[in-house]
Structures are given as C-alpha cells and as structure tokens.
Amino acid sequence: MRVEGTHTKIASDLLAHYDVHARRLPWRAPPGSNAADPYRVWLSEVMLQQTTVAAVIPYFHAFTDRWPTVDALAGAQDADVMAAWAGLGYYARARNLLACARAVAGDLGGAFPASEERLRALPGIGDYTAAAVAAIAFGQRAVVVDANVERVVARLFAIETPLPAARPEIRAAADRITPDSRAGDFAQAMMDLGATICTPRNPACGICPLRDDCAAFRTADPAAFPVRLAKKAKPHRTGHGWWMERADGHVWLVRRPGKGLLGGMRALPSSDWSAAPDPAPPLDARWTTLADPVAHVFTHFSLSLTIHVAHLPPDVTPPGEGEWWPLERLEEAGFPTLFRRAAQAAMKESRYHA
Predict the structure, then answer these.
(1) What average pLDDT is seen over the chain?
(2) Chain segment 112-152, per-residue pLDDT in tens
(3) Residue 279: what are its φ and ψ, rounded to 5°?
(4) How many CA atoms lie within 13 A of 141 on its CB side?
(5) Out of 4, 45, 160, 349, which one is annotated catalytic?
(6) Is 323 an annotated catalytic residue?
C-alpha cells in the first residue's frame, strides 16, 4: 500500500526527524543503513516485550557477549539461559527464546527467514515481533505496532474507540502511513517518537515533527488518547516460602516446574499462591516467620509471600528434589525478582539471629 498526501508527509517528516535524532541502541543499525543483524533485532524485540529499554540494555550486552550468534544461543544449556534472564520477568519469553533459536539453528541453517509469514511460524514469534524483524532486519514493508506506536497513531488520528477494541482501527491507520521504503527506519522512528516525545503523560508536542498533522494536538488534550476503559483491580493472592539454611553456609533451592509462572527458574520452596493461612512446612524445624511478607506484582495478580526461616544441621536434607546452594554464590542462582527479594529478606533475618 502506497501512502499519499498527508500520509506521505507524515512518513517523510518523521524519517527526516529520525535521521537526526535516532536513539543509539546496541541492537540498531544507523538510520538508512539497512544493515541490522536479524539475530540482534530478534533478541532485542523479545527482551523488550513489556520491559523498558533501560532495563534491557545490560541484559542484551550480557547475552550477546556470551552467545553472539543464534547458533551459540541454540547450544546453550536451558538453566544457563534462564539464569541469565533472571530479573527481566515474563519468563515464558526465555523458554520461547531457546525454542526459537534451536528451530532457526537446527531447521533453517542458522538464518532467520525474511518474511513475516515464515517468521510467525517460529516458536514464540507473534504478529508484532514478526513484523518488527521483517521490517528492521530485512527492510520488508511491514506494519509494526507496539505500545508506543499504538499511542502515536491513536493521537495522530484522534481515534476515540477505547482500547483494546481500537486496535484493528489503529493498525489500519498505521498501515496507511507506513511507507514502502525504509519501513524499518519508519518503525523505529515511530517507537522513538512514542518513547521520547509522544509520551503517555505530558507529551512534548512543541518539539514533535508530526504536530501539524496530529488530530489529537488540535483537540488541545492529546494525552486523552488513546482512550482507555477503567482498569479492573488485580486480584490479590497469598503464599508461603521457606528459607532453609544449613550451618555450613548453604541454602536449599528447588527448580520450579518447566511450564507455568516462573517456569524452570531456581527458587525457594513455596506453597501454592492461593494457600491456606498455615500450610505445613517442608520439614519439622524451629521456624522464624518474617514480620513483613514479600510483595510482588505480576501481570494478572499481586502476591504477598510470607517467608519462614529455619537453620538446619548439616545432616538434614529436605524432602523432594532440590539442591544445596552455597550462599556465597547466591547471585549465580538466577533468581527471579520475587525470590531475590525473598532471599534478601531471609538473609537479613539470619544475620540478625546469628
């Protein structure tokens, strides 16, 4: 689809702005170069899902230093990748990352396909990621709509339908302004605009290159777009976790089931997160219950995890599968954020009673 008139002007104005003001990011090629590495584009897009650029950059550097190619990542141990991912959240992404890397390395000779359709056929790659990789890494014309682009387009056209029902309308409008050439630069320019100028609150309309063509700017209340329905309160759950520390400086860790929340990650033993007020501990011991539960917010619910601490003699091993992990190497365990906070609280309690 070719853009015409005002829509052509939007693309050309934005690309001119991007040529001067593009953010320098470790996975990007300079504007106009069309030389982005598909592996780095794909890896960054997976990491950036529901995660900020600032949070992703150090993880991206660590991953590409350790696994510089898709073949290297495909050969990595699951546990090593999960540990390296710890702290980024949404851990199903890490499992899908490995599955996709192994499919590309094993079935496609280490080369990512260039088309959206073939990219979507790979594990863990949905419509957005397929479009982003096709456009940014391969220069294909693809309509790339992330949260930033969604906001920019909703404002450009003053789309009044509330989200999420507005998404087909927003995508159609994004399609109308996406140019045939430099589609990757255009996608990244739209992302940059939403991240740095057309922000959720207090958009900097005074320096926006698209202000003259923005319908929301003419309403005098651009921040009212996109229209959103009132959010429902997240349900709250409770659970219990157990810190079992041995006298020789080891703590008992388990690995969560491969599927489900925080799947495959090392963790403290814990109850179901809808547990009865006083579930039975893993073994008989003198337990100390921390006064303040560890609070964490997941996508669909919030959690309060009550932590119980026990010091065990060297000859005691808790039931079930697990491993004694040296406290001096706890940073290497790859805890997700919830259990990292729980460990910090438990160690503080242990030092207090030492």
Answers:
(1) 91
(2) 999 999 999 999 999 999 999 999 999 999 999 999 999 99
(3) -70, 155
(4) 11
(5) 45
(6) no
